[in-house]
Predict the 3D structure of the following.
Amino acid sequence: MASQLNFEAIGTRWHIDIYEALTSDQESVLSVAIHERIAIFDLNYSRFRADSLVTRMAHAAGTYDMPQDFKKMHDLYKKMYEVTDGYVTPLIGQTLSDAGYDAEYSLQQRAELHTPSPWEEIMQYDHPELVIKFPALLDFGAAGKGYLVDIVAEVIESYGIYQYCVDAGGDMVHRGGVPIKVGLEHPDNSDQVIGFVELRNNSVCGSAGNRRVWQTSKGTMHHIIDPKELSSPTNILAVWVIADTTLLADGLTTCLFFASPQALREHFTFDYLIMRPDHSVEYSDNFPVTLFTQ
Amino acid sequence: MEPNQTPSSSGKKLGIGIAVVALLAVIAVVFGTKKSADTTSTDTSTVSTDTTSDTSANGGQTTTSTTSAPHETTNPNASEYKDGTYTATGSYQSPGGPDKIEVTLTLKNDVVTKASVKTEPGDRESAYYQNIFANNYTPLVVGKDISSIKLSKVSGSSLTSGGFNDAVAQIEAQAKA
């Protein structure tokens, strides 16, 4: 017996598989708890919402009392910022928005693009307070969705359920004894996969550079913008990362657009697969993949 | 949505050229990357006769390596290399002592269908260099229809944002109007 919860939230499809028997009452209680938790996260961290915490920070400097869940996300972002020499930064929010990746998905460039300020000039975190020295639009798109997957998993476990898969639009965590087969979507054709991985008791996240593209004065943009070049990197067609947490896996997919896997592996534990624009693929030794070739 | 295209024969030729150059560059760089240039031995002859690895001493600061692609052939159907799996083992001197690296290529119709690099971990520095190249590399992956494979899930990015895709569709519609 198993249960499945399917719904739409934070702009993506969620599929939650519970590999344990639940009564319909348990299922609806769990469903409500998950929805409430996602709503709280969205209200805090979505730069697409006029009433969110990050939108307030974009309008007013000051000292903000941050939610409990901020520390983990902050700490990873800070480390990613340092390891990638500033290429992965939450301060990219304004640049993304100006380029057209905004609350309305206008996909129309609305202002000249600027390199974001250095982290230290804008903010300082001393748990639980975040000091915003100058108003800044923060973007937690690099790892936020993965983090929310982990948080939803925590909600599920708080009900004593330990065998499940939480899948938010292809970024997912699996827990349980039976591995699942996860296809790696072909970045050029969403009806196809280039291979599959066996996922068991860890997380996989994917990111593609040819999806969600639009035109700006700086050329074709996708959801990742190089904060120094102010253009979108084209060295990677798609990338997948497997790690212990979805937060880490999600964040590292963005890091890999800016830093070599070898450099990142000196600081983080993960496995990866990178597909280049010429459809060649490289992956780490323990990336549990079966690839399709000729 | 673009159909996944099967590369043409000439595309494959180009593919193998790039793949072999990349692989040989890897081999050359691995073998060339060392602090003292006087004790290197390389063996890449089983892969391509065009390969040259110049690892002559130049003060131990840098070493240069050059590789070249197999010659383009006017007959795209003629195989230049016999199908099969080729393995080459190279040894090089690192500050921590001798280290070995093993490169395996599988060729079919002049296409590298599989490539791998095996290393024996040596001292820390060579472990670092070995780690750089100890990736698994596949020169050309192809798509298979999702419906033809039994999968629990699919990971990618097409599903990430319904709103985004809607916006693109709207803009396209506006552009056509």
